Amino acid sequence: MEKPLLGAHVSFGKQEQLLGATLEALSYGANTFMFYTGAPQNTKRSGIDLELTSLAHKLMEEQGIDQTKVVVHAPYIINLANNNEKYDFSIRFLKEEIERVERLGIQLLVLHPGSHVGLGSEVGIENIVRALNIVIDSKTNVKICLETMAGKGNECGRTFEEIALILKEMKYPEKVGVCLDTCHIHDAGYSLEDFESVLTEFDEIIGLSKLWVLHINDSKNSRGSHKDRHENVGYGKIGFEILMNVIYHPKLKEIPKILETPYVSIDDTSKIKSYPPYKFEIDMIKNKKMNHNLIEDICNYYKKD
Ligand code: FE
Ligand code: FE
Ligand code: ZN
Question: Nearest ligand, CA of residue 186?
Fold first, then answer.
């Protein structure tokens, strides 16, 4: 049976770094994964431990994880769309992040295009283009994947057209591609029910060869809501069957698919505990059968320890 290239968002701990992230992914039965190199909302970053990095790569090789498909997500405090006093900081931090990703031997870096904070998307996109052309040079080995956004607030990249406008201005076009997030495009107004047409549209406007990462999330809100609230697979407004069509689409076989669905929280004797859903979501996707007891299964499994 063909196995999808499927993984989840895992953590890159201070102690175990890439090795910890790999072990966490394996514990979910994943064959790929994504992580932040530190807290996404701040810029505190610890040095990369080369020993742990090489152990992690050895483990990936043993376990059949293709290192070229592993993904890092850039911190969302980087905003390239607003050329205020933090613009230079964002540029510098993204450059440093690329160096960290290269040191980790990872090749794919997902980046939110940015928020134009009222400047208008045209100006926002100009700022993004300028910044990316400063950050990416002939020596850059990492591939930047611009994420399709839900269109919350002043987010740039809410349509394929906006992403295409950025891509066509790249000095090094071969180094910039796209991460398509199912929750985001649904919230942005695309109809995943007719995924074939969405893919055709993507191909015409951006080009399918530019699609390098997929984020697989259900959505808490209806199509076009511009909310960006992720839901567990099969438990939201997109639904299991439609997400399965995306995951098993023959044209998307080689693209890493990353779950960023919410942890399941339970109130356990006045203490809120939350557990990762990924092991059970991955199981259900591999079995191609909706698990209506997902939440209970997750709680029972993790409550033991
Ligand atoms: Fe993202
Ligand atoms: Fe995402
Ligand atoms: Zn999101």
Answer: 3
Return the exposure string of 88-112: e unless at least 16 CB atoms fall within 10 Å of the residue's CB, then b. eebbebbeebbebbbebbbbbbbbb
Q: Which of 180, 215, 212 has its CA nearest to residue 198?
A: 180
Report the run of H or E that residue 241 belongs to, with start and end.
helix 240-247
Nearest ligand to the C-alpha atom of residue 213: 2
Residues 6+ apart with CB under 8 A from 196: none
- Domain membership flag for residue 297: no
pLDDT tens, residue by residue, 215-258: 999 999 999 999 999 999 999 999 999 999 999 999 999 999 99
Expressed in angstroms and rounded, the spacing between residue 255 Cα and the centre of ligand 2 is 14
Total tally of structural domains belonging to the chain = 1
Does residue 113 have a pLDDT over 70? Answer: yes
Question: Degrees (nearest 5) of the Cα angle 285, 291, 293?
Answer: 145
Domain carrying residue 15: 6-264
